[in-house]
Amino acid sequence: MIFDDVTAVWNQFNLTERTIEHLWMFSIALTISVILGIILGIILYQHKKYAEPALNGLNALETFPDMALLVLLIPVAGIGEVPTIIACIIYSLLPVTRNTYTGLVSVRPEILEAGTAIGLTEADIVRNIRIPVSLPMIAGGIRIAIVFTMGIVTLGGIIGAGGLGAPLQTGIVLLLPDVIIVTGLWVGILAVIFDGCAGMIEKRLTVRYGEW
C-alpha cells in the first residue's frame, strides 16, 4: 500500500526528471564552490593580511537569510536556475575557503622544517606538503558545502528553479501531505548519501595525511 502511494506520487510529479534537474544544479553549484573556495583559500594563505576581513565578509554573507538572498537575486539574475546556483555558491564558499586556509596555515612546524632541510622551496612546500596535509580539512569544508547546496537547490523551487523543490512547493501550497512526505524524504536521502560519501573520503584522507 505504501509502495503504491509512493509510486503514484513519484509518477504523477515526474520525480525522476525532477531529481535529474536537482542533481544538475547541485553538481554545477558545488563544483564552482569547491574550485573558487580552494583558490580563494590559497590566495588568502599567500596574502594573510587579507584573510581575516575576507573570511569575516564571507561569514556575514552566510548569516543572510537564504530566502531573502534568493529574492534579492531575482532582479539581477532573473528566476530559475541561475539565481539558485549563485545563492548556493555564496553560501558554500565560506566552509571551503575557511577550511582550505586553516589547513594551509596549520601544518606542524616540524614538517615544514623537514621540507626546508631537504631543499624544498616555498612553492614546493605548498604544493607537496601544505596542500596534501590540508586535504582532510578541505574535505570537511566540502562536506559542509554539500549540505548547504542541497538545501538551497531545494529552496530554489520557490523561484522556479525546478528540481525537487518544485513538487515540494506544490505539495505545500496545495496541502498535499503525500507529496510533501515523499519529496522531502527523497531530498533527505540524497543529502545523506552525498554526505556519507564525502564523510568516507574525509576519513580516508585523514588516515592518509592526518598523522603528518
From TrEMBL:
SUPFAM superfamilies assigned to the protein according to its UniProt record, in alphabetical order: MetI-like
Any GO CC annotation of this UniProt entry: plasma membrane
Pfam families in the cross-refs: BPD_transp_1
Location in the cell: Cell membrane; Membrane
InterPro entries hit by this protein: ABC_transp_perm/SBD, MetI-like, MetI-like_sf
Domain ABC transmembrane type-1: start-end pairs: 19-198
Chief place of localization: membrane
GO biological process, one term: glycine betaine transport
Keywords: Membrane, Transmembrane, Transmembrane helix, Transport
Transmembrane segments: 23-47, 67-94, 144-166, 172-194
Membrane recorded as keyword: yes
The keyword Transmembrane helix is assigned to this record: yes
Record PROSITE patterns: ABC_TM1
Annotated membrane topology: Multi-pass membrane protein
Family to which this protein belongs: Belongs to the binding-protein-dependent transport system permease family.
Name the UniProt record assigns to this protein: ABC transporter permease
Organism: Methanogenium marinum
Classification of source organism: Archaea, Methanobacteriati, Methanobacteriota, Stenosarchaea group, Methanomicrobia
